[in-house]
Amino acid sequence: MPDRNDMEDTLNPESISSRAELSTYLASLTSMIRQGHIPAENATTEDFLEAASAWLSDMDGYSAWRGEPTPEAPTWPLVAALFRAALAYE
């Protein structure tokens, strides 16, 4: 099993700066889910999309928690964070 710090480094959305890096990030996320290293609580497409929508609607709270303004336009790190959050967001 990978070390928790290694997983956190691999799954850090802030490290994403290009489309290619987002693709690699999503492939790593998929692999970790398949290997059972991280849970996918929203495993159906419907649940995942509902969670993604809810997370985007509540993104002001995420931004405030990070001490940042809520972005008006998406960035690669934001897209990565959305995918990661939608796995478990309720």
The global form is: globular
Task: State the helix count.
Answer: 5
Task: Determine the mean pLDDT.
Answer: 88
**Strands, total number:** 0
Strand content: under 5%
Helix content: 55-70%
* Main β sheet profile: none
Rg over alpha carbons:
13 Å
Distance from first to last alpha carbon: 27 Å
- The run of helices and strands is HHHHH
Low-pLDDT regions: none
Q: Structural class, from helix and strand content?
A: mainly alpha
Describe this structure in words.
By secondary structure, the protein is mostly helical. Helices cover 61% and strands 0% of the residues. It has 5 helices and no strands. The longest helix is centred in the first third of the chain and has 16 residues, at 19-34. The protein is globular and about 35 Å long. The mean pLDDT is 88.
Keywords:
single chain; mainly alpha; globular
Brief account:
It is built from 5 helices and no strands. It is mainly α.
Would you spell out the secondary-structure blueprint of this structure?
Blueprint: H1 4-10, H2 19-34, H3 45-57, H4 59-66, H5 76-86
